[in-house]
Every structure is written in structure tokens, then in C-alpha cells.
Amino acid sequence: DTGAVAFLTKKQPKTFKVKVVTMDAEMEFSCEVKWKGKDLFDLVCRTVGLRETWFFGLRYTVKDTYAWLKQEKRVLDQEVPKDSPITFHFLAKFFPEKVEEELVQEITQHLFFLQVKKQILDEEIFCSPEASVLLASYAVQAKYGDYDPNFHKPGFLAQDELLPKRVLMQYQMTADMWEEKITAWYAEHRGIARDEAEMEYLKIAQDLEMYGVSYFAITQNKRDTDLLLGVDAQGLHIYNPNNKLNPNKSFPWSGIRNISYSEKEFTIKPLDKKKDVFKFYSSQLRVNKLILQLCIGNHDLFMRRRKVDSIEVQQMKAQAKEEKARKKMERQILAREKQMREEAERAKEEMERRLFQLQDEARLANEALLRSEETADLLAEKAQIAEEEAKLLAHKAAEAEQERQRLEVTAMKTKEEKRLMEQKMREAEQLAVKLVEQSERRLKEADHLKQDLTEAKDAERRAKQKLLEITKTTYPLIAAYSTPPAPPEAADFSYDSASSRLDFKDSDMKRLSMEIERERLEYMEKSKHLQDQLKELKSEIESLKLEEQQQQQASMYSLPAEARGYVPEPAYIPHSNVSVLTDLTLIIGIVEDWTVGVFRKVNEQNKLSNVFEMFLK
């Protein structure tokens, strides 16, 4: 029998495997069979580096609820799962009233931060959209550090879960819009370290109504099931099932004298004996034990907070204070070094930029120098050209002065010639007037001559008639009567009288013809003389016109516009002379036409004199 027992003992395993899941890691341990819950819990705390162990516990799942591993009992003697390895979750079992005062270690803060963040994202803790965005910005600060727009490009939060689904569904906003809102807050947290960002997160989260509350379904009597019991660091609270935010009744730990339960009935006795005892019922014994554990643990911590810290806690706080001061100093040194490095980099960039700028300025200065040298050479050439042009202009100015003086002399000559031309024009006008008067007078004389010719023709006709009458009466008498001729004295008398009349008329006609011929010759000589004068005047006018045009061309084209130092005054420009010459030309044309008319009339008088001569013949 002893051998059989030894054989069985030898075959039984002495260890079992355990997997512990924290908020950011998974660990596996090989535990001895005889280990109690405290042995495993201490091993996990040592592995994690946690000293504030009173907040945490190892939780496992049993049936449709959960339970916390008891530290005073062996692990395998509890209702742990029979799986291998056995899975435990290392979680915060109790929550502090004021996280900033009670959480000492950085690892403790970090574990609480991860757990509370998960509860908010899983909607186990209700959080408003505004507070959710602010908490998300601190979570991003804790994960990514200071915001850098050059590094944190749009979309860098696409893989992070930062907001509860309820908040995302509540508003019609895209992921980019939510990221923009979170980034706006995140950019304001510059300079906050990771532990400080996590502490700020917890300080906001601890003010939420459902923070640190464990809810259990209860009934106030055996028939009703419409109440919830909430256990937290402040005390016990009674809620309606549809409202976990505002309790109907609360029992703070300072006002509770005793909590007891018998099977499924719980009794809360207030410290004030005048108040009624509150009783409620729970459906499961396992849940009742869990409620009692949480009540005892939260009450112990409540009383512990109001006592002087233990030596261990004081040492931890002192060490944590020194560690925070050291880290703060390191962060300040790091920030100063970072700032100095950034300043050095900025100074380097500024120096490089300045160097490039100076190089560009030097290059531009060299180019400007080359351009200035070229410009100097060009200006020297231009100065030389300008000097030559100045000499040329001076020479042209002298020529212009000479031309001006010549023009003045020419203008004076032109004035004199104009005066002479005007005088000749007046003489021509007077001569034309005289010719017109003489023409009128000759016309009158021609009319008188015509009248005299008519009278002479009438007298001739009468004389011939009378002569015919005399011959007709004389010759028939001589033939009929053969009388001797009449006395010669009477015949001679009559004949002589007729002959004398005829001679008188012939002498008058000859005299008149001679006068007409003489006047015609004089008139033709005067007309010829006038034509010669008009031709001479016309040739002088043409020569003056030509000379005026040459003077104008000489004054316009002899010098360039910029070189002309003198512009003749309008009095020197022979515009008025040209107009006078033009008027003279018109007058000469009129006189020539009149002269042609006069010659025509002279020809008519010649024809008339020829008629007289023919008549005389």
C-alpha cells in the first residue's frame, strides 16, 4: 500500500501553467500546486514592477459572471477554469477617490489609464462627446508625444480607436473630421509628458458618473427585480435599471455602521440609528460573495485614506516624488537640450540660408560690377559720342546762326522785294485802270466812227441818187432836142459842187482813217508795252516763288530738328509773300485776258478801217 501511494504521488504533477493578461501584455507562469492566490499575485506584481498592490486583483471568468482570486486560499482550490493554462486578468479591483493624490507609481497610473480608457471605449463608462474628444487628445499625447505637423500628417490616427462607437454614431461626421477635432486639442498639449498626459486623462475620467462603479442586479423585495446596486470608493448606491448615472439613494461609507447578508438577503445598517435599515436581495450566492468582497475592500481603503500613511506608502511617495522630480529635471534638461538643438539647427539653417544669401549677393554684386564696368565703358563711349555730338551741334548751331542771319537778310530783301512787288502791282493796277478807261474811250470813239460811217454811207447813197437823177434828166434832153450843151459854167458849177461835196467827204474819210490808224498803232504799241511789262512781272514773280521755295527747303532741311538752335519767327517765313505773289499772278492773268479782249477790239477797228479804205477806193 505504501508503494502504491508513493507511485501515485510520483505521477501527480507538481506545477500548473497560468497565463496572466494585463492591459498591455500577456505573461505565462509555471506555478506550484500548493501556491495560494497571494503567491501568484505577488509574482505578477513583482514581474510588472507594481508596489501599490492594494488596488489590483486577478479576475477570472466563472460560468456567466466573474470572480476575484482569493489570496488566502490555494489557486487550484478555487473555482478557477480547468483550462491549461489557466487565464487570469490582472485588473484594478478598487478605484481611488483622487487619482492625483493616491496613485504614486507611474506603472500604477499607466495600468489605471489603460483600464479606464478601455472601459470608456467599450461604453462601460458613459462619456459625453465633448469629454470623449478631450480624453482622446490626452490619449494621443500619451502615445505620440508632442504634436509635429511635419511628422503627424493627416490620417495618422486612422488605426487608433479613440472614441466610443456611440459618439461616432451620434454625429454625421467622417473619420477625418473627428481626427481634425482631436488634433486641434492635441496640438495644445505640447510639452506634456506621457505620465502627465495619462494623469490628466484620469483626472477627467474620475469625474464621470460611472467611473469606478461596479453594478449588480438586485431587488428590494423577493418579487421585484428592477434595481441596481452600485459599489464604488464613495459607498453604496441604488439605481433604476435604465439610469446608471443618477442614483435614487446613496449610502456613503462614513454613514454605514454594518453590512451583513444571510443567504440572498443583504442588510445595510446606517450609522444613524434613526434611519431605516435598507434590505435588498440578490439572486446568486456567488454574486453576494462578490458584492461583500467589494464592500469590504472599498470600505477598508476608505478608512485607510483617512489615516496616516504607512511607512511603506510614505517611502513609496517619497521615492515617487524624487522620481518625478528627477524625471522632471531630466525632461527639463531634455527640453532645454532639445530647444538648444532646435535653436542650433535653426541657427545652422539661418547661417546656411545667410550663406546662400551672401553667395547670391556676391554673385549679384559680381554681375553688377561687370555690368557697371560695361556700363562705365558704354558711358565713356557715350560721353565721347556726346562730346562729338556737342561739337557737331555747336558747329551746326553756328551754321544755324549764320543761316538765321542769312534768313534775316533774305527776309529783309523779301520785304523790300515785297514792297517793290506791291508797288509794281499798284502800278499794274493803275495801268489796267487806265487801259480800261482807254478801252472804254476807244469803244466810244469806235461807236462815233460807226455812226460817222453810217452817216457817210447815207450821204454817199443820197449823193449817188441825186447824181443818177441829174444824169437821167440831162442826157435825154440832149438826145431829144439836140440842143447845144449847156453853158459850161453852170455844169461845171454843179459838178464842182458835187465833186466838192465828194471831195469833202473823201478828205474827211481819209483824215478819219488816218486818225484811226494812228490811234490803232499807238494803242498796239501801248498794249505791246503792257504785255512786255506783264511778262517781265510774271517772270519776276515766278523767280521769287522759286527762291521762296528754295529758302523754305533750306530752312527745313539744312539742319536736324535737335541741332537747330534757332527757329525763324513767323514774320521771316515768306507765307505772306507767297500769297501776295499768288494775288499778283491772278491779277496778271486777268490783265492778260483783258489785253486779249483789247486786241480783239483792235482787230475789229482794223476791219472797220479796212471797210473805210474799201469804201474810199
Automatic annotation (TrEMBL):
Protein's cellular compartments: Cell membrane
Gene Ontology CC: one annotated term: plasma membrane
FERM domain segment(s): 16-306
Keyword Cell membrane attached: yes
Domain of life of the native organism: Eukaryota
Short name of one Pfam family: FERM_N
Coiled-coil regions listed in the entry: 317-466, 520-554
Keywords, alphabetical: Cell membrane, Coiled coil, Membrane
Membrane topology category: Peripheral membrane protein
Molecular function in Gene Ontology: actin binding
Binding site for a 1,2-diacyl-sn-glycero-3-phospho-(1D-myo-inositol): K70, Q71, E72, K73, K289
SUPFAM superfamilies noted in UniProt: Moesin tail domain, PH domain-like, Second domain of FERM, Ubiquitin-like
Major localisation: membrane
UniProt protein name: NF2, moesin-ezrin-radixin like (MERLIN) tumor suppressor b
Classification lineage: Eukaryota, Metazoa, Chordata, Craniata, Vertebrata
